[in-house]
């Protein structure tokens, strides 16, 4: 073996570590980087610069949704606060234990014996956790009994990471991002927009799992808050800071009836969905047409009442009005129009032929031979 080979090998490792270091790509998914880099990640170096605004007050609108967040799209309207999520029970109780649950890919136990860095409750207000059993958020082992609906819902840490949902600034995923966003943290690298977009796709006005739950309530003919209807989907929505409300159910039901629902076969919604005709464009005179239709309907109703009255009195029905026979001039015109059709772009020969034909038909009509 040449003496320079170990140095070249070490140089290659150094270049590879530098190229994939999270410090060079702040707050970006780097599963490949973690698998290839020979040194431990520096969690502080991977965090992007953040700014802070006033934390959300927890105020709600008339429909129970949280009022709009500062520096966030108006459509982003969860209806559960972080404290409510903790009190109800989520993620099997392991969420804020750095060693909770099965190990993932980005933070293997061999390199992180203390668990996932940055997972702690110390940064959040103590009143959020006051009165909440520690087993609901600091358990070592996942348990469905720690979930509000007593069912398993969602993937584990490795599943989140392998799907590319985890970003290094929030190693526990969406819920951790939401807790920090609620407290006023704002990231300028596009992460906030990405996470808000994910929420809209799950629990927004047209969110797939929200519409799925509404469709199942309609299919089973049960109330919007009946816990027996898909507890797994309800637990999933709880992880996304959302619970189905009556106002959202009524609004979403109209869409399900016309468009169906995500992950529900059409045959299961038989009797729920309705066929709709394409929307007719409004044109000038539609209001007049609608008014005339109403008048015609009123006249028909009067005619039916008059006929019923005559039958009750034993009178015969009124004679139907007959049209007078057409005059000789009308007959001639009809004959001429039926035999001669004006077509565009006629040649001179065709024009002379049609004119001669018209004269012949006129003479035949005058002689009574038509």
What descriptive keywords fit this protein?
disordered N terminus, 12 helices, mainly alpha, two-stranded antiparallel sheet
Written overview of the protein:
The protein is elongated, with a radius of gyration of 38 Å. It has twelve helices and two strands; from the N terminus they run ααβαααβααααααα. Helices cover 41% and strands 2% of the residues. The chain has a two-stranded antiparallel sheet with strand order 1-2. Helix 7 packs antiparallel against helix 8, helix 7 packs across helix 9 (246-259) and helix 11 runs antiparallel to helix 12 (348-366). The longest helix has 27 residues, at 286-312. With 370 residues, the protein is mostly helical.
What's the gist of this structure?
By secondary structure, the chain is mainly alpha-helical. It has twelve helices and two strands; from the N terminus they run H-H-E-H-H-H-E-H-H-H-H-H-H-H. The protein has helices spanning 5-19, 31-36, 82-88, 157-162, 174-182, 191-203, 208-220, 231-239, 246-259, 286-312, 328-339, 348-366; strands spanning 50-52, 185-187.
